[in-house]
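Before relying on records like the one below, remember that each one covers exactly one chain. Contacts with other chains, cofactors or solvent are not represented anywhere in the record.
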Amino acid sequence: MNVVPSETPLRHGMAEAQVILKPQKARPFFGRHPWVLDSAIDHVEGHVADGGVVDLLSHTGKFVARGLYNPHSRIRVRLYTWSPADVLDEDFWRRRIAQAVERRRQLGYDRPEGAARLIYSEADGLSGLVVDRYAHYLVAQVTALAMQTRVDRLLPLLVEAVAPQGIVVRTDRALARLEGLASDEERSWGAVPEGPVFIEEHGIRYGIELGIGQKTGFYLDQRENRRAAAAYVRGGRVLDLFCYTGGFSLAAARLGAASHVLGIDGSQKAIAVAHAGVELNSLPGVRFEVADCFDALDALVAEGERFDMVILDPPKFTRSRKSVDEALRAYHRINRLAVTLIPPGGTLVTCSCSGSVTREDFLYMLAGVAQQSGRDIQVLEQRGAAPDHPVSATCLETEYLKCFICRVV
């Protein structure tokens, strides 16, 4: 349904209350980390509404930063400015949105037939808001109460900055539970198509169902990794596991001239989109199957199959450090089986989008795979997300994607 403008304007932007930190807790926030956890807060002075503006003060009363308050979340305050002169009003959000859009233009990610992440939450100073552009349409993902309370007023600012034909707003259900968000609200602006939106990336056409499935409908963060991996295909046979809508598969076929590509994913909807991509790009050597990827790996190993390249791009195996060991066991299992399928000199492209799993964790996991398989694994490239997903040096949580291109000896 179309957005109905809120009767309540964006808040005036000055602090409604003051959040006082506990002693010895201010350093990370003077260091510009944008998340204030409830455990760092001593008390709140004044009354503040959900999503209201607050000033963050040290225990001695020194101004640290200005942000937005959420009493329902472990991230109690999200910080947006470290200048007391900044007012979190409509002009502030307009400037932030315009700056983020301009950065993508500077990257050359503004081709009208292409796709890009226009706003990447903390990395663009807009914690709790992600906006992806697919050709002439936007998908906005709200991940914080502060942004959900303002979304009706932020959409016109996106229209002003980008002039899209339509906008879809979605909320991640898992994050909604953590943030106390309404996860079932459907919002849109403009003319949102019922069918797929078509984009082009590296000369490959993709049909995107806006806001359906993982993330906002497509793995934009793997944009440059798809091209990098394809350079190692060199006409060989490729297995793409957890292939989703077939991004790596189609790139391997078109850019790497793969002789045969098999993509497997557990989502029937994703595979239907992948099949459409084969037809759209006239790539008859690409085949997709719906199956549990763990079971499929076991079956392929049992059948003695061999692939010159195996690509592993699974969904998150963990959302917190508490379950990292369990996640690493899952990563070890799929990588150990993948290595079995690769002949000497073949290529393993292995990814993790679990932010709680560090690069060091992942490398240690690969070392364990090498030891148990008796195969040398040479890391040729360590890659991350595309440049439209920048990493904030003061919020390293924005670095989540790891993509290792390896030679298996």
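The CA atoms of residues 93 and 154 lie 8 Å apart.
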